[in-house]
């Protein structure tokens, strides 16, 4: 077991791809334990780790994201927000948050959203006179809404690993998403006077109408996803496939910005970005399988139960564990390793699997912007050319907002469970 | 630590890794627990059993490979998976063979049922018997199904075994394979309007919250085979083998009473939720459908033929 | 010797192009497949095999895409330390990383090949379409083999940049590498 842990840490910081860190540590464990029989089943485990219907939504939502950029959908969403909110003090900062919330209702990953929005919002805010650090920090923390407001890739992975309903996870993420988005807006409001944030001229009524008409087709994508989940026509996964087709048609035929000759590149990017996620899932399921063979989950569970029998303490404890894990580990991998260990304990404490899943996902999402290892943080820092240390310091109040939201999500179950309960 | 195949630890205790589907409330778990207690008692603690419920070591398909390689020692594998390895296991999916769970349970103990294991030549497993899971019925969110004509045009959720799909198509329904994780919402939104499962499955999945019409059809048996890895089995002494066999016999004996308890609980829970019940009884029309369906499979497979004959004998007693 | 090394790089470029083509088609077919399933359901026809096809495609996309990202160096990794290294040390560490990936892929290739050729797997059929499972499974030995070729090609390139001492050469090689598309 020590071999597995040591090789994990060394390989991780050496710079071996995370998926391979998981695979090689599992392999080394098998080799050192002499249990060569496990090797014969390892390939099958790697294959089966991704053979889940829910997981199919991952390439589909990634494709939607790719098409949105090329098809001019992103652009129209942002300009609509600008027209509505631009004239307030700190207008562009609000636009950033709200546009991120809109985007989040179509996209499923914070990293994709950070890359997309850093490219657009940070230069725009800088031009209007905002500090670059602030602009970048606001963009990356708003982009965290990507995986919290449905659809969401981490919710899918949780649903798959925990055998929980992906549709319910999606519904459960709505209020937490608005909570964090609202928190960010309050933060901007609180500092906008002091920081003397700029504001733009009010847009004419005609511009507002025109911009709104332009954005309607784009808004049909989240509408389809939601209707898909709530109506009988298709399952949550299939709704992603339909959204993919619609997004393509909107960009191609309606906005006329998506050129068919771009399609091969979009398809390749989709495949590559999918593989990055699903290959980690495959390898993490190998890693987690070895842990199960070793009965580590049982030992961790026994240990956690022995500490305290209060759900309050347990929730505090898992939040601390998740935040620490989120500082170092990739969210997807952490999910697959931790869920089989901690979910049964959470259920014993009477915590609903949906609420538990959202607590876990929000934690690991916050981990994307916390140093030392945070992929969204890295993306934002490299795209706006700000040193990670500097950006991290600017991010402190934003992380604070997310943590307050996390406490609310953790200790008020209704925040996550109320909307799913409306639909059974 | 150890891991892998049955290893003897420093204190001389041999460990059996026993894998299966279903959580702690499932009949698999409860039956496996009896086996565990029996083995540990009979061997004076010289043999320990580690349970791996809920497919934590992998799907049934993976568990089959793990039995072959010997990384898992024992497993309960559902007959649907076995049919992917040998079509003879479709015998268990021949419709309307058994009127109730007892008959299915009795069938599991016959030579004709055990003969199916002879077809698993490449699997590297030693069979130890069958666990009954439950009898298959239907739950509908549309209307109460009172005759087989009512099945026409229904979107019925099935596990995608060819024989099961074939059966529902024969009755004129649309068999729809929906992943179990998506089933609740698919049922709720009407992607499927009927579920093919047993009372305990319907109850633990809370599908009665949506479908209020339960029809007892007993249209198929749902069970699993208990298999030991050949590598593990050959490593046992004769004395150890008999301990394992005897303990499994005790578990199998109690399996039927566990089923009855669970099924009663499930039915009571559904009644409390206002589910309406009815049943479909065998009649001439149904018999015709059954005979034609069985003929299709039995004419190609001697083992299925013998199985069906034995089943009819049990049914007529 | 040089000719031989160039040969590997040449082969790996060709494989890269083929893999790119296959994953592009797979993503396209996946989207169509699921939409067709929905469309048929609207007209009350149930297609039994669509989700199985979709899952096979997901496996293709995952494992082919993973070997492609080894070729293109685009996999998620923690490079905080690697980024601070310079010159020989950096190249050596990068080669070590490639060697680890190579080691893993060789092991997985060997065992997955044994797995899909085992008689018990050869006789297993998929539940819905009843196709032999070794066919979808063979994506694992296939892609681990690809990854092995890509790794070797990466190592050769790293060794080449290592031997070309001038900074200009190094930059040129990077431009060449990324200018391919
Ligand atoms: Na989202
Ligand atoms: Na982090």
Keywords, separated by commas or semicolons:
heterotrimer; B: 317 residues; alpha/beta; 44% helix; disordered N terminus; C: 181 residues; 8 helices; elongated; disordered C terminus; binds sodium ion
Short recap of the structure:
The complex is a heterotrimer of chains A (424), B (317) and C (181). With 424 residues, chain A is mostly helical.
Ordered list of secondary-structure elements with their pairings:
The complex is a heterotrimer of chains A (424), B (317) and C (181).
Chain A: H1 2-14, H2 18-33, H3 37-48, H4 57-70, H5 73-85, H6 91-104, H7 110-128, H8 132-143, H9 153-162, H10 166-172, H11 174-192, H12 205-230, H13 236-254, H14 263-293, H15 296-307, H16 311-328, H17 331-348, H18 353-366, H19 375-384, H20 388-411, H21 414-422
Chain B: E1 14-19, H1 27-42, E2 47-52, H2 60-69, E3 74-78, H3 79-85, H4 101-108, H5 111-114, E4 125-140, E5 155-158, H6 162-170, E6 174-177, H7 180-189, E7 194-197, H8 199-204, E8 213-229, H9 230-234, H10 238-272, E9 276-279, H11 284-298, H12 302-316
Parallel strand pairs in B: 1-2, 1-3, 5-6, 5-7, 8-9
Antiparallel strand pairs in B: 3-8, 4-7, 4-8
Chain C: H1 2-42, H2 50-72, H3 80-84, H4 87-117, H5 119-122, H6 134-137, H7 139-163, H8 167-178
The structure holds sodium ion (2 copies).
Residues 326-327, 367, 370, 373-374 of chain A line the site of one sodium ion.
Tell me about this structure:
The complex is a heterotrimer of chains A (424), B (317) and C (181). By secondary structure, chain A is an all-alpha fold. Chain A contains 21 helices and no strands. With 317 residues, chain B is an alpha/beta fold. Chain B is built from 12 helices and 9 strands. Chain B has helices at residues 27-42, 60-69, 79-85, 101-108, 111-114, 162-170, 180-189, 199-204, 230-234, 238-272, 284-298, 302-316; strands at 14-19, 47-52, 74-78, 125-140, 155-158, 174-177, 194-197, 213-229, 276-279. In chain B, strands 1, 2, 3, 4, 5, 6, 7, 8 and 9 form a 9-stranded mixed beta sheet that branches. Chain C has one domain. Chain C has helices at residues 2-42, 50-72, 80-84, 87-117, 119-122, 134-137, 139-163, 167-178. Residues 165-181 of chain C have low confidence and may be disordered. By secondary structure, chain C is mainly alpha-helical. The interface between A and B is large, with 41 and 35 residues. Residues 104, 107-108, 146-147, 149-152 of chain A line the site of one sodium ion (NA). Chain C: The chain crosses the membrane at residues 21-43, 55-81, 93-113, 133-156.
């Amino acid at each position: 077991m020590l071999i597995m842990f040591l090789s994990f840490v060394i390989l991780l910081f050496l710079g071996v791809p995370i998926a391979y860190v998981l695979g090689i540590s599992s392999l080394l464990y098998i080799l050192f334990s002499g249990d060569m029989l496990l090797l014969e089943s390892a390939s099958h485990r790697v294959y089966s780790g991704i053979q889940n219907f829910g997981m199919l939504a991952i390439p589909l939502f990634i494709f939607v994201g790719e098409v949105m950029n090329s098809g001019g959908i992103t652009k129209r969403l942002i300009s609509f927000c600008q027209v509505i909110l631009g004239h307030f003090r700190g207008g562009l900062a609000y636009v950033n948050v709200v546009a991120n919330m809109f985007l989040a209702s179509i996209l499923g990953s914070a990293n994709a959203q950070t890359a997309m929005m850093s490219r657009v919002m940070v230069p725009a805010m800088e031009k209007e006179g905002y500090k670059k650090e602030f602009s970048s920090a606001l963009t990356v923390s708003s982009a965290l809404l990507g995986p919290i407001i449905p659809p969401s890739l981490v919710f899918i992975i949780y649903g798959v690993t925990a055998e929980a309903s992906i549709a319910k996870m999606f519904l459960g993420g709505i209020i937490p998403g608005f909570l964090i988005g609202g928190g960010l807006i309050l933060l901007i409001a609180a500092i906008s006077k002091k920081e003397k944030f700029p504001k733009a001229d009010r847009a004419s009524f005609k511009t507002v109408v025109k911009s709104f008409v332009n954005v309607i087709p784009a808004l049909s994508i989240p509408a389809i996803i939601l209707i898909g989940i709530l109506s009988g026509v298709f399952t949550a996964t299939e709704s992603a496939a339909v959204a993919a087709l619609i997004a393509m048609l909107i960009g191609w035929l309606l906005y006329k910005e998506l050129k068919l000759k771009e399609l091969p590149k979009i398809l390749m990017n989709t495949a590559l970005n999918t593989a990055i996620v699903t290959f980690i899932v495959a390898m993490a399921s190998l890693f987690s399988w070895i842990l199960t063979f070793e009965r580590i989950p049982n030992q961790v569970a026994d240990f956690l139960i022995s500490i305290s029998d209060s759900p309050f303490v347990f929730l505090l404890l898992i939040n601390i564990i998740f935040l620490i894990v989120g500082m170092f580990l990739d969210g997807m991998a952490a999910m697959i390793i931790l869920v089989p260990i901690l979910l049964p304990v959470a259920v014993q404490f009477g915590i609903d699997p949906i609420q538990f899943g959202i607590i876990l996902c929000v934690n690991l999402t916050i981990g994307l912007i916390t140093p030392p290892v945070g992929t969204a943080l890295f993306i934002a820092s490299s795209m706006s050319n700000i040193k990670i240390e500097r950006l991290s310091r600017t991010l402190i109040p934003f992380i604070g907002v997310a943590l307050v939201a996390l406490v609310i999500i953790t200790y008020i179950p209704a925040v996550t469970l109320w909307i799913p309960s409306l639909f059974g | 630590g150890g891991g892998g195949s049955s290893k003897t630890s420093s204190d001389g205790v041999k460990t059996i890794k026993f894998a299966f589907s279903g959580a702690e409330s499932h009949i698999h778990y409860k039956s496996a627990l009896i086996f565990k207690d029996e083995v540990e008692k009979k061997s004076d603690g010289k043999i320990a059993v580690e349970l791996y419920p809920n497919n934590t070591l992998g799907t049934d398909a993976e568990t089959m490979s793990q039995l072959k390689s010997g990384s898992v020692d024992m497993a309960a594998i559902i007959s649907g998976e076995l049919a992917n390895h040998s079509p003879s296991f479709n015998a268990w999916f021949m419709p309307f063979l058994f009127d109730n769970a007892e008959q299915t349970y009795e069938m599991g103990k016959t030579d004709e049922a055990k003969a199916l294991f002879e077809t698993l030549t490449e699997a590297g497993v030693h069979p130890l018997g069958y666990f009954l899971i439950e009898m298959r019925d239907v739950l509908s969110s549309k209307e109460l199904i009172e005759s087989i004509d009512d099945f026409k045009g229904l979107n019925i959720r099935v596990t995608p075994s060819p024989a099961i799909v074939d059966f529902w198509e024969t009755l004129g329904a649309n068999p729809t394979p929906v992943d179990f994780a998506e089933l609740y919402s698919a049922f709720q939104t009407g992607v499927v309007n009927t579920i093919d499962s047993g009372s305990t499955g319907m109850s633990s999945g809370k599908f009665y919250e949506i479908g209020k019409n339960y029809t007892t059809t007993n249209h198929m048996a749902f069970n699993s085979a208990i298999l030991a890895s050949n590598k593990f089995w050959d490593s046992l002494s004769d004395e150890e083998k008999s301990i394992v066999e005897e303990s499994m016999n005790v578990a199998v004996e109690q399996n039927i009473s566990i089923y009855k308890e669970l099924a009663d609980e499930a039915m009571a829970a559904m009644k409390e939720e206002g589910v309406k019940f009815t049943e479909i009884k065998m009649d001439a029309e149904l018999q015709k459908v059954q005979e034609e369906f069985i003929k299709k499979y039995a004419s190609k497979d001697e083992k299925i033929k013998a199985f069906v004959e034995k089943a009819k004998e049990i049914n007529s007693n | 010797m040089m000719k031989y090394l160039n040969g590997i790089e040449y082969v790996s470029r060709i494989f890269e192009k083929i893999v790119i083509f296959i994953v592009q088609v797979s993503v396209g077919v996946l989207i169509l497949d699921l939409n067709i399933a929905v469309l048929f359901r609207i007209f009350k026809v149930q297609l039994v095999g669509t989700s199985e096809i979709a899952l096979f495609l997901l496996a293709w996309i995952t494992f082919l895409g993973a070997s492609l990202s080894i070729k293109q160096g685009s996999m998620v990794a923690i490079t905080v330390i690697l980024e601070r290294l310079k010159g020989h040390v950096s190249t050596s560490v990068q080669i070590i990383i490639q060697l680890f990936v190579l080691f893993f892929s060789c092991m997985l290739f060997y065992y997955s090949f044994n797995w899909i050729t085992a008689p018990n797997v050869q006789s297993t059929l998929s539940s819905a379409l009843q196709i032999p499972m070794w066919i979808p499974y063979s994506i694992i030995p296939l892609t681990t083999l690809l990854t092995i070729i890509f790794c070797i090609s990466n190592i050769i390139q790293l060794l080449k940049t290592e031997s070309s001492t001038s900074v200009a050469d190094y930059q040129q090689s990077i431009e060449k590498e990324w200018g391919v598309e």
